[in-house]
Specification:
GO molecular function: ATP binding; pyruvate dehydrogenase (acetyl-transferring) kinase activity
Helix content: 40-55%
Low-confidence stretches: 1-5, 310-323
Largest sheet: 5 strands, mixed
Strand order of the largest sheet: 3-5-6-8-7
CATH superfamily of the largest domain: Alpha-ketoacid/pyruvate dehydrogenase kinase, N-terminal domain
Shape: globular
Keywords: ATP-binding, Kinase, Mitochondrion, Nucleotide-binding, Pyruvate, Transferase
Family: Belongs to the PDK/BCKDK protein kinase family.
Number of strands: 8
Pfam families: BCDHK_Adom3, HATPase_c
Number of helices: 12
CATH architecture of the largest domain: Up-down Bundle
Distance between the termini: 44 Å
EC number: 2.7.11.-
Order of helices and strands: HHHHHHHHEEHEEHEEHHEE
């Protein structure tokens, strides 16, 4: 029924155009280029940016919409995945319906269009996670295991593309800010303090933990607060938040019935000659050897699944401690987006994350 509805909603000509644009090659954009280009957000540069996005976003969105039609194990037909596909088709139609961008009035109108698209896609990740849960519930586990590699590779491409799309839209929108903070170029902070970002992420994670468990272990941060480097604070915040959230849950659950005080989680920020490394360690019991190879997959979580089949995920964000099964793999994609990485090392009584 859902598949039939999707076909009826979108015209044949639109679907054909999506497939045509899905064959075009997308253009990579580096952090350095975005920082240099956005350092002078003149009307001319904003117009050039909008003209670029008018084509580039259509290509990227079309490529993902096409892939959403071709997933194994009938994942493409799960209600949650069809909802995501509809969002991508709606967004492609919105962009292609917008005429050529010739002047600043066109640019301002187009900026409002892509702002609305960004909001529309706010809940793509949990909705896709729900689709995977629907697949796990309906399909023989042996079949899932056979096609798992293909599903995992698709989800890596899909979520990485989503990061890129949201980065491009967010960067363009933020360049319109009349009074940007010092050293901020759109989404990019040219002098970002990883210690400061880690503190904010820790505060948010401990707040969530306290709300769920009634208390939260301490978190100690070690590093030079004056050290800075150019990066996207929102990306680092998400990574540290997810990792600390996992550590808080592990420690809290291990010590909730113990007479001992829970040991603190430790974060070390190290500035190297070539890399910036952030190490997060906890004494929450570590990860079983059998689970280590699964932690970066999208079909695995050590926590109870909080996703509700009947929840309207398109309306709001519900942040829980854990259970969606995508916190670690998504965090690794954010780390890799600008050339970094995320590694997990586990030993008995300890778990260590490096990003």
């Amino acid at each position: 029924m859902a598949a039939k509805k999707a076909i009826e909603t979108f015209s044949k000509s639109l679907i054909e155009e999506v497939h045509k644009w899905g064959c075009f090659k997308q253009t990579g954009v580096s952090l350095r280029y975005m920082m240099d280009f956005g350092s002078k957000p003149t009307s001319k540069n904003l117009l050039i940016s909008a003209q670029f996005l008018h084509k580039e976003l259509a290509i990227r969105i079309a490529r993902r919409a096409v892939e959403l039609e071709r997933l194994p194990c009938d994942l493409s037909q799960k209600p949650a995945v069809l909802k995501v596909r509809d969002w991508y088709l709606d967004s492609f139609r919105d962009i292609r319906s917008f005429s050529e961008i010739k002047n600043m009035n066109d640019e301002k109108e187009f900026t409002e269009v892509i702002k609305a698209i960004k909001v529309r896609h706010n809940n793509v990740v949990p909705t896709m996670a729900l689709g995977v849960q629907q697949l796990k519930k309906d399909v023989d586990p042996k079949i899932i295991n056979q096609d798992f590699v293909e599903i995992h590779q698709f989800l890596d491409r899909f979520y990485m593309s989503r990061i890129g799309i949201r980065m491009l839209i967010g960067q363009h929108v933020e360049l319109h800010s009349p009074n940007p903070p010092p050293h901020v170029v759109g989404y990019i902070h040219t002098r970002m303090s990883p210690v400061e970002v880690a503190r904010n992420a820790v505060d948010d994670a401990r707040s969530i933990c306290s709300r769920q468990y009634g208390s939260a272990p301490d978190v100690h941060i070690y590093g030079d607060p004056d050290f800075t480097f150019p990066y996207v604070p929102a990306h680092l915040h998400l990574m540290v938040f997810e990792l600390v959230k996992n550590s808080l849950r592990a420690v809290e659950e291990r010590y909730m019935n113990s007479d001992k005080d829970p040991p603190p989680i430790r974060i070390i920020v190290a500035d190297g000659l070539e890399d910036v490394t952030i190490k997060i360690s906890d004494e929450g019991g570590g990860i079983p050897r059998s689970g280590l190879r699964k932690i970066f997959t999208y079909l695995y979580s050590t926590a109870r699944n909080p996703l509700d089949e009947h929840a309207d995920l398109g309306v709001g964000d519900n942040v829980t401690m854990a259970g969606y099964g995508y916190g670690l793999p998504i965090s690794r994609l954010y780390a890799r987006y600008f050339g970094g990485d995320l590694q997990i090392i586990s030993m008995e009584n300890y778990a260590i994350a490096y990003t």
